[in-house]
Amino acid sequence: MFDLWRSGYIRSPLSHALEPGGLDPAKVVWLPAGDRSFQFVADPFGIERDGVVTVFVEAFDYRVRRGEIHYFQYDRNDVLIDQGVALAEPFHLSYPSLIEDGGELYMLPEGYKSGVLTLYRCVRFPDRWESVQTLLDVPAIDATVVRSGARWWMFYALPGPDDRAMRELHVAWADRLEGPWTAHAGNPVRTGAADSRPGGSAFEREGVLHLPVQDCSGAYGSRIRLLRIDSLGPDRFEATEVRRFEPDGFLDGFSDGLHTLSGTGGMTFIDVKSVNRSPLERYIRAQYKLRRLFRLNGPRSQRAKAA
Questions:
Q1: Of the residues 83, 95, 201, 307, which has the maximum number of CB atoms within 10 A of its CB?
Q2: How many whole angstroms from its chain centre is CA 8?
């Protein structure tokens, strides 16, 4: 079995998710499906500029098992007008959360296999980004950054045994986006697979901060729970669940999960999951293993051993 994801957007502010019917399946514009046998796009974050909606996603291919950040652009009539690669690294990338600060646009993708959390600045929108700062010297997962009050706050997970990334919520804070960042005194501030791993953009509604988190209690990314942050400081954290979003009814055949709820301005972005079986699965796994074997034993590896 393997997961396939579809991503889409709604022309409605993320804060409307708190209202009844705030996520209307009939209003979702779905990004193109890849080859459904082995490719998907997930973790959508986006922005609207000059009438063009740009959606950044993790693009994953089971044959290579290394995600890249791709973009899809839509005009005012929700017609796809461009797509391409926004950011690729030698390591896996996902969760391309966006941050605006001081007139600059930044991306904070997950790249936990690099061992650190790196901030990227947009040099040319939407397809050129440069690394500008290591924010954390730990492999933070699904890092979600928001400015609330006088400080910047980061919510993230950490890898570890027994699915640690799915059952612990960590927090850090800083006076400036570039840092230095300080870990919360109570980390992990929340535990449990049902409502700990970040799942999209933190946002304020009527001055109150809210954070989407993934419910991984039954399976990875089963649904989104929305937390209201009741108390937040360098040494305090309290939160209450206020909404729950199920994947049912959004897209036929994709009712097995929903693990991203993000947004900026008047836009909201979501993804939904389908758990699949395919006769090609063994073939795809074999392709990946052969590619990995070649990389480990190819000419470069031989030269490295000789040196």
A1: 95
A2: 13
Number of H helices, E strands in the chain: 2, 22
Q: Contact at 8 Å (CB) between 10 and 270?
A: yes
3-state secondary structure of 164: helix
Closest CA to 224 of 187, 191, 273, 180: 273
> Contact at 8 Å (CB) between 292 and 253?
no
Tokens of 274: 């389908």
**How far apart are the C-alpha atoms of 146 and 100, rounded to whole Å?**
10
Over its C-alpha atoms, the chain yields an Rg (Å, rounded) of 19
Q: Spell 146-156 as b/e; 16+ CB within 10 A means b.
A: bebeeebbbbb
* 144-167 residue pLDDT tens: 999 999 999 999 999 999 999 999
Q: Which residues contact 105 (CB under 8 A, 6 or more apart)?
A: 47, 98, 99, 121, 122, 125
What is the structure's pLDDT at 287?
65
Backbone angles phi, psi at 222, to 5 degrees: -70, -40
Q: How far is CA 164 from CA 43, 168, 187, 190, 216, in A?
A: 20, 6, 13, 12, 11
State the pTM of this model: 0.92
- What is the percentage of the chain residues whose pLDDT exceeds 70? 89
Distance, CA of 97 to CA of 135 (rounded, Å):
14
DSSP code string of 17-43: GGSTT-S-GGG-EEPPP--TTTEEEEE
Confirm if 189 and 242 have CB atoms less than 8 A apart.
no
CA distance 105 to 128: 11
CA distance 228 to 23: 18
* Distance from C-alpha of 42 to C-alpha of 72, rounded to nearest angstrom: 12
Dihedral sign, Cα of residue 114, residue 118, residue 123, residue 128: positive
Between CA 69 and CA 4 the distance in angstroms is 16
Going by the DSSP 8-state scheme, the letter that residue 33 receives in this structure is: P
Token pair recorded at residue 98 = 């966006």
